[in-house]
């Protein structure tokens, strides 16, 4: 599958809202819920606008993962961006359930890291995942992220406690 990263924009609102609603149940098996309000269109639009303001201020880089026919298959984001003394950010990504196991997350991360390397001489990116999200762990490790911190039973999902794993990547 050919994919590309498209910057988050207001033009994608309806398609992104549908993508998020269609994948809500699946996403909530891997990450904490965004809450009921997030799935109300007006609140979703407000949240999207907040991200766009952050992006405009340089505090976040938010991308849609889009396939060859323009369908949103996932998202990948850098948030909590800091640029001084060197670039640092937190990483988040999600791929829709019906697009799993096609290499989309891995390719997207490779594209994003390529952008970071081109734009910044020094950079550090942090990522978190849960102990039961083996796919995400493998993707991060494939791209030279190193696990440094484990918070035992650090996150509750659907009544189960999982370890919270933290990973770091540096290009210097």
TrEMBL record:
Name of the featured protein: GNAT family N-acetyltransferase
Pfam family, one: Acetyltransf_3
Domain N-acetyltransferase as annotated: residue spans: 25-172
GO molecular function, one term: acyltransferase activity
The entry's keywords: Acyltransferase, Transferase
Similarity comment text for this entry: Belongs to the acetyltransferase family. RimJ subfamily.
Signal peptide feature range: none
Enzyme Commission (EC) number: 2.3.-.-
InterPro entries named among the record's database cross-references: Acyl_CoA_acyltransferase (IPR016181), GNAT_dom (IPR000182), N-acetyltransferase (IPR051531)
